[in-house]
Records
---
Amino acid sequence: MGKDLIVNYKNEPCYEIKIRNDFSDLSKSIQMMNEKNYLRICIVTDSVVEPLYLKNVILKLSVDYPDTYITSFVFDAGESSKNLSTVQKLYQKLIQDQFDRNDLLIALGGGVVGDLTGFTAATYLRGIDFVQVPTTLLSQVDSSVGGKTGVDFEQYKNMVGAFYMPCLVYINTDVLKTLPAEQISSGMAEVIKYGIIRDFEFYEWLDSNVDKVKSLDQETLEYLIYQSCKNKKEVVEEDPTEQGIRATLNFGHTIGHAIEKLSHFKLYHGQCVGLGMVAAAYISMKRDIVTEGEFFTIMNILDSYNVYPELKDINIEDVISATKHDKKMNGQQIHFVLIRGIGISYIDTTVTDQEMRDAVEYILSI
């Protein structure tokens, strides 16, 4: 039937994560999450996901919600749509269709869809219910869990946002079969991240199951997603608004976000995070808090899952400059996540420009 997790907020059950292999349980899961009888449901998705799953999801919901007005909002796929202009168009749709606080939004798609829908839900009428139905590996193991929502502002990633919890995260592992290989590799960056920063046992499992994961074996994927979500939920339960330990989930993201911005979002988010993890592990090794053996073990597992792409034609000083505009800045200090070994991470505010420069030079050499 699948696996379930409950995410707590302020020591109280907040929402469920349901891991299934189809959409058959979606309506029942929504009905079970609270006592509301939704009169209107808007499914928000993008132009890539729409032809694959929108009709199927609408059909499933229509059977179980025969008296509910079910509509959809589709925007152009890609990071370039993750902005306030798209949010404004969604607001207009909801207003025209008379959506109120007793209605529901469903985010059907990857991280961009989830972030944008969540932000809209947080701000429309000061809060409306929303459900995450993530369709990429990265969104299933990371961005759909934890209540981080937001959009980009001009060229600055995730600068406008809110912490706003979904009512449900419904994961259908079967949709991963339609993803290109690069999307799977991108998602694996966030999966491997959990092993590197806090779960050495999971890291070893990932290292031992490369072939099964890459073949998209159903049972293996279910375990992989469950363990990733379990790690994410444990961190966000302890620190829901990123005042402390949750910031360790940004391992690889400081330099990763800079590269993503400078690539004009042509590289997948996970690919950039993979490059950022290489940089962070390299700095940790150069500081002698990670052994050379541990560093190359990390490089090997990232290579095994094809996590990071070859990076050429990027200006090192532009990367350093871009990190100074990241939302993880605190005053003039970058909150950089480093590791003291595989499975042990910490937040450091002393990483220098030269250390980052050396790390980016290393990335360019691999």
---
Amino acid sequence: MMNNDIGQNMLKSNTSIVGIVCKDGVVIGADRRTTAGSIVMNKSKQKIRKINDYLVASYTGGVADLELTNKVIAAELRLKELKTKSRPTVEEAANLLGMIIYRNIRTPTMIPSIVGTLIGGIDENGKASLYTIEPAGAAMEVEDYDANFSSGMPYILGFLERAYKKDLAVKEGIELAKECIKSSTQRDVGSGNGIDVYSITKEGIKHVVSEEIVAEYK
């Protein structure tokens, strides 16, 4: 039953997110459109969120669910840091977020929380990594690329099957992420209006692309 619920919701998320692993870091990209059914509600929504100085996440799912998820994971990581007096690793953050999502969807409610996440970050040793957390709560490290369960996923993964090359540099990954979002917005009606791309390297987290997609009428 749960698999059916996730299957019915995963391509109704109406968004496009992508994470790409590079030889010198990680790149995360997303579009800006939010919808309610067939209506475009917002054309400038930032779907990539900086959790703290070393973690960034991009979400797919209901707006209320993802807003709450982002606040909870930021607070929980801060509490963990204060208790242990050490900074959580990217792996620890991903598994904590997976546990939160796993617990949420198994709490009896009339409206289950369905959120998919790509989370990237940099550990204290300078290693950047990317994790995908499926809507059921499983957290898995990404070795090449992923689009989680966004509605643009089929178009993004199809594009990356031929365009992705192992050991590409972050600079190349940024351009590839832009092309991924452009490709999905051409076919996925739930995605569009803008592109944001973040890079995650030992130099830190940077918002490297912020572009509006404007319709041209001829």
---
Amino acid sequence: MRQRGPHHLLSMADLDRDGIEQLLNLTESFAEVGERPIPKVPALRGKTVAWLFYEDSTRTRLSFETAAKRLSADTMNFSVSSSSVNKGESLRDTIETISAMGIDGIVVRHSAAGVPQQVTQWTEASVINAGDGWHQHPTQCLLDLFTARTHFGDLEGRRITIVGDIRHSRVARSNALGFATMGAKVTLVAPPSLLPSSLEGWPVAVCHNLDEALEDTDICYLLRMQLERQKQAVVPSLREFHNEYGLTVARADRLRSDALIMHPGPMNRGVEIAGEVAERPQAVIGEQVANGVSVRMAVLFLLLGSGLDVVDNNRIAA
């Protein structure tokens, strides 16, 4: 694991291929924990994890909280709406206050890119980026990689097509890097108005024709229109976007039988994906959510645990 600090996960750039493999292998062990009658292990007993979510979240927050509780960690929930942030308290003062209470990890989500990196300067706790602006969402990428590996095994040479609002998507940035690191070939599909102004450093190809891009694709990864981040109209209408760039029933019918349909959620049915398509067996969106708990258990354990002493032959000791 290449890390900017001794114990943080801020970006997929912090992980080389071996680091990703280590996390995915450990995730398999924690997935087994989730299948037990009592899905709980004492791996992080005595550790405390705080949640600082300055943006709304359902899947990511609940997933991290479930992961921490299954590891027997204590949790500290920070609610921005009822905190001293509303009295003008700065981010730094909030971090230093929480850190003074004695915590081992902070999971941060914020609308501004770079905030998790800044937080590392104000605390001795491990910092995990749960999404920062348009920048990165590393644990989403890891759960997507785990889901894909579950179906395909080695991802070397697999074709990944990421479709939709690339410009405003931290998931697109993380996944482009993560899948490419694992040897996959990533293609971005979007109108020019939904692509970043520069793709320098992105290990991707670009296509503006979805029908062409879907030929021989292994994973069609759909992104929602992030209207809350858009400052001006970027497409003529959502209906036109669906016709040109949505995974319609007709397009889904042309996918290979073993191709996967993925989405980070929440879905906008009838925009980036037809409602009927979201219910097909090829759509593994529910699997992604379930795998998110196991992946985040692995991340929390590697960053906060005292080592791999509770792991015996890839099985987590009860």
---
Amino acid sequence: MEPGEPLVVGLTLLAGFGAGVLSALLGVGGAVITTPAVRALGAAPIDAVGSTVPAILPSAVAGTLRYAREGLVDWRAALGLGLSGAVFAVVGALATSLVDARLLMVATAGLMLWSGVTVVRGGSRGPSDPPSDGGPLDGVETSETDTAFAAERPEESVRPPHHHLGLLAVLGAGSGFVAGLLGVGGGIVMVPVLTGPLRAPMRTAVASSLVAVAIFSVPALVAHTWLGNVDWSYAVPLMLGVVPGARVGSRLTVGSSDRTIRLAFGALILVLAVVYGASELRSLLG
């Protein structure tokens, strides 16, 4: 199949829609779907890295708008992650010219596998298990919106603590570098860390991750475009598909339990990681 053929365009649009759903539902950039999809449709490895980046921003923004209205975004964490990640997203994008693109595809599969295992382990806890340290956090203010959500969903009755900006900057820098290097949104790194070591409720992690993803997708896009890594015959259909998908995904997330989202995220990413990783390893070793 060749880029621009009607069938390829249609399948790329469908991949974009699925990526938008995944982005808003699970707080990732959606490239865990679009990168394997455009590779299967004939894109070269380096084009698969760069061509997925333009779709990250609209999908992240579309999902963020819904979460912001629901009061689920931890803005301090989101901005701390996003601003530090923006700088290192450029560094990661520039580093793509120094690495065999086939190795980047295998690395993407490995990252997906780690992310899926991490989140499934967290989601396997019983619904009565505490999402944080086991009780209300002293000194953490909650809004009326938070209180309403806590009454409706007891498992998320506690907002995450305000972590030190230095810690957020380190996490954002690592996520941004990975986002730029592999052409992913960075949420695939941030969500497991936010819900694991940082003990954030899943919905808060998803919402905050999307804000950060939107911020550092901009410099990553500029860098990949400048390097010539973006094939717009793939990028444009992906961009058109992600926005309606993100709207669907955000609605599903707001109405789902923390444990359900965790298990859905982990199961899907694990399946994609195994299938995609096996395919790319065969290509690399063949």
